[in-house]
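Batch manifest line 318
LIGAND: adenosine-5'-diphosphate
JOB: complex structure
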Amino acid sequence: MAIGEFALIEKYFTDIGHSPSVNLSVGDDCALLTPPPGQQLAISVDTLVADVHFPARGDPALIAQKALRCNLSDLAAMGATPLAFTLALTLPSADENWLAEFSSGLRACAKEFDIALIGGDTTRGPQYIVTIQVIGLIPNGFALLRSGAKSGDAIFVTGTLGDARAALDYLTLPEPQLNAQQRFFLQRYYTPTPRLKLAQALRDIASAAIDVSDGLSADLGHILERSAVGAQIDIEKLPLSSALRHSVDARRFALHGGDDYELCFTANNNRTDDIVRLAQQHATPIARIGEIIAGSGLCARTANGDVIPITAASYTHF
Ligand code: ADP
Ligand code: MG
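JOB STATUS: finished
ARTIFACT:
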């Protein structure tokens, strides 16, 4: 017999993560939280729709990981510490194999990043839709905003760019047919690393920050608009993985590809030493890719020294 709604919630979505700030979790009409004094709540929500954001037949544990990690990346982009999340789940059926795997992926991810599942909603619908809302904590006034970049600031990116975009070509290939490079791209696509600890350390160093979800050209573009400045980057300085480096698409993917969930941030040049130290401390590569300039818009210096304007060519839903 198919499992009922409440039994399903009880079996798969209770007791995932804990926090001293959570007074009441899954099971009542609302969850209750008491944030520590002197801290602001950072709140964000993201939806993943089957066959738009992940293949409907994808591994349920990886779909759960991706959904939570994308949201955690938004907390990272503000310099927040994860506290709690809610989960609104639409399912075509109560398939217990799917639910068990989804739940175990979610539990593992919640444990890794120390965040508690405090509630949600479960409905039937024509396809899988996973909506996660995250709640984080930031000391009052220390959030990293998009609006603080100043002319002369350096622009930095963590990790490598373009790998998740490269994975889009292999999403539906059967696992045994994948080579090592394709596996790496898929791992980057399904389990991006939200740069939480590093971003928390950047709270009083970075002048602006964003996570790269839609592609560097689009997301750096948001910083430029919000900060009313322009930027010049060096195409040759975009950080590329060894798997992507030799692809003819490498630079295009790094510039415009989404889903990497790396951090793009700006900082005054006198903070360069701090940033080098943080990269070492957090074992996270940080590349200096260019600088903020007066004016507006993004341009890029190519290998032969030409400077060309870049328009965002990333995915938009409408
Ligand atoms: P209500 O009718 O009051 O909205 P629900 O029947 O939707 O309550 O949910 C019952 C309880 O289970 C609530 O505490 C809700 O937060 C929780 N819940 C429902 N679905 C999920 C889910 N997918 N993950 C976590 N908690 C859930
Ligand atoms: Mg409900």
